[in-house]
Design brief:
- It is a single chain.
- By secondary structure, the protein is mainly β.
- Helix content is 12%, strand content 36%.
- Strands 3-2-1-4-5 form a five-stranded antiparallel β-sheet, with no helix packed on it.
Length: 115
């Protein structure tokens, strides 16, 4: 086969893959979000996790958490915002239980406590 024939045979396959999202890894750090309810309606959820990043000044905490059954979420790592002072006493590595409101874009902590 010549190079032109190989290129002609491969081109339709290359074009067919264009525009498709890259496959996503799954697991505790990057759960698949396929089928996850991300509606704009505010919903509440709760879970347990581990603090992986903390910015008390901005009120943001990143948690590696287990599944959130109320919202149909798999285990994943995500950032939540909290009220001023709500993160006092927490540090990276702490195991926590938390509750939050989800508006379709942002998780706002309503409570967070060390286990």
């Amino acid at each position: 086969m010549t190079h032109r024939m190989l290129l002609a045979a491969a081109l339709p396959l290359a074009i067919a893959g264009c525009g498709k999202p890259a496959p996503q890894a799954t697991g505790p750090d990057n759960g698949s979000m396929a089928g996850v309810n991300m509606s704009a309606e505010t919903k509440s959820g709760h879970g347990s996790g581990v603090v992986t990043k903390l910015d008390a000044a901005s009120g943001e905490v990143t948690l590696q958490h287990g599944p959130v059954t109320e919202l149909g979420w798999p285990a994943m790592t995500m950032t939540f915002s909290g009220r001023p002072g709500s993160l006092d006493g927490l540090k990276v590595g702490d195991k926590v239980d938390f509750a939050f409101d989800w508006d379709g874009k942002t998780g706002r902590l309503t409570s967070i406590t060390k286990r």
